[in-house]
Amino acid sequence: MNETQDKMINDYLEKEKQNRNEQSSFVKTLVFMIIIFAGVLLGIFLFADNKEFLVDEFGEDSFITKLFENLSEHNINKEHAEFTLPFGPRKQNILLLGVDSNGEDADLWEGTRTDTIVLLNIDPKTRSLNAISIPRDSKVYLPHNAGIQKINAAHAIGGIDMTVKTIEDTLGVHIDRYIMVHDEAVRKIVEALGGIDIYVEKNMHYNDYAGKLHVNLTKGEHHLNADEVVGYLRFRHDAMGDIGRTQRQQWFLRGLLQDMQKPQTIAKIPQILSVAKKYVKTDMSLYEMSQYAAVAKHFDIDSIEIATLPGAPNKKGYISYWILDPEKTQEVVNRLIYREKVRSDKVQYSASLMYPTNTSDASVKELTQLLEANNISVKCTGHINSIHSQFIAHSKDVTPEYYKWLKKKIPELKSKQFVYDPTNYYCSDTDFTLIMDKN
Predict the structure, then answer these.
(1) In whole angstroms, what separates CA 427 from the centre of its chain?
(2) Per-residue pLDDT tens for 355-399?
(3) Computed over its alpha carbons, how large is the radius of gyration of the chain?
(4) Whose C-alpha in 88, 105, 125, 265 is 20 to 30 A from the C-alpha of 201?
């Protein structure tokens, strides 16, 4: 390791010590990516064959009108759309990175940490999407003899090339494209949208005057402005720290994706595009982005499978690490990235049923009976603070196909976020956990 690299690592560690309480979020990248691709491009694809709409909103000779008039020529038949992806029909791995600020007047990308790391797998054939959240504190080996560091140090030390190489080496995957989003993008996007509706699941009060973070939110439904959204996403006082916050923000992403498909978002595209020009960095061409949007238009939100790399927290001195579980991490990668198919002849499944404190006993009993009628043994039930309705698979036997079948049998299971987590925190030795709605 040369002296320059030694200095870069030492500078990074010093910065990490000074700023260890700062945080970003899962949504810093995904929210913006979804807004850009599912809101901007996907939204217009929904109306691209309506020339009158485009002309009224953007003008007959505008860049947006002409772009999507051309794109719509290849998608006249929406039910049988042909996706001529420039890279062919193979699965693609897209790395999404949310980078922090390096101070006022500093370069937006130079020496910044990737506090948000998400690996997307897109399958054009099945028009499906999987997403793995990689905890920023994951302890890894950096390439080029840079030593053992947190994974978010890779970009601060060696830029995007070292970041991509680190993740490829750690997970045994190939990354096709990347998208980086700067910290300030989320604030600007929320301002452009005029705020976001969100259910705050608990009272959140926190003041960090040095970090200029002030959170003062009460439990319940709210229309949050830009500052409030940033505070909500950066709030870290959860039982499991970054992991608990990531789980909460994954739910927030799902709801936002639904909102991005609404026509009202289309009129705000010029503001969003101006933010993208400054705060987004990618190696994708405009053509590639438009083709991803064509696929994204057909995503089934209920079929999007998400996971967080499993592991356990560990602290060494003033540095906190997330120690990845090798076997379970490989399970997650095999399932969500390589889409490993499991042939199962299992008939009897087991489940844990968790529900908010305000749930009626009758509702719990009714759902238990429905599960048992479909060869599912409910091994344990209990209260949970989360208000987010989820279907969490713990076993390889609980596949997206099984969940799809089960939703047909039990309609009450529809519109639940589908999560894969081989670590069962709720009730040991069950195939899946069902978290009921807050009402």
Answers:
(1) 25
(2) 888 888 899 999 999 999 999 999 999 888 765 688 999 999 999
(3) 22
(4) 265
Q: Which fold has domain 3-336?
A: Aminopeptidase (3.40.630)
Identify the residue whose tokens are 């238009």: 297
Q: In 10 A of CB 11, how many CB atoms?
A: 13
Instruction: Give the separation between CA 418 and CA 251, rounded to whole angstroms.
Output: 10
Instruction: Please name the fold of domain 349-435.
Output: Alpha-Beta Plaits (3.30.70)
Q: What is d(CA 250, CA 37) in angstroms, rounded to the nearest whole number?
A: 17
Q: Tell me if 435 sits within 8 A of 392, measured CB to CB.
A: yes
Asked, colleague to colleague, whether 3-336 and 349-435 share their fold, the answer is no
CB contact at 8 A, 28 and 233: yes
Q: What is the largest CA-CA distance in the chain?
A: 68
Query: Closest by alpha carbon to 157, among 2, 323, 19, 28?
Result: 2
Task: Name beta bridge partners: 315.
Answer: 320
Which secondary-structure segment (H or E) carries 71? helix 63-72
**What amino acid is encoded at 141 in this protein?**
Y
Distance (Å, rounded) from C-alpha 330 to C-alpha 173? 11
d(C-alpha 397, C-alpha 399), whole Å: 6
Pick from 23, 4, 426, 2: which is nearest to 242 by CA? 23
Cα(185)–Cα(197) distance, integer angstroms: 18
d(CA 309, CA 358): 31
Q: Where are the domains of the chain?
A: 3-336, 349-435
Picking from 127-141, 172-186, 219-233, which range would have the lowest pLDDT averaged per residue? Answer: 219-233
Residues 6+ apart with CB under 8 A from 230: 186, 187, 190, 213
The whole-number pLDDT of residue 275 equals: 75
Structure-block tokens of residue 298: 């057909």
Name the CA dihedral angle for 396, 398, 402, 406, rounded to a multiple of 10 degrees.
180
Residue in 84, 19, 75, 25 with CA at minimum distance from that of residue 47: 75
Q: Which residue has the higher pLDDT, 66 or 71?
A: 66
pLDDT digits (tens, 9 = 90+) for 279-302: 888 888 767 776 776 676 677 766
Distance CA 229, CA 313 (A): 27
- pLDDT tens digits, one per residue of 317-339: 778 899 999 999 999 999 999 99
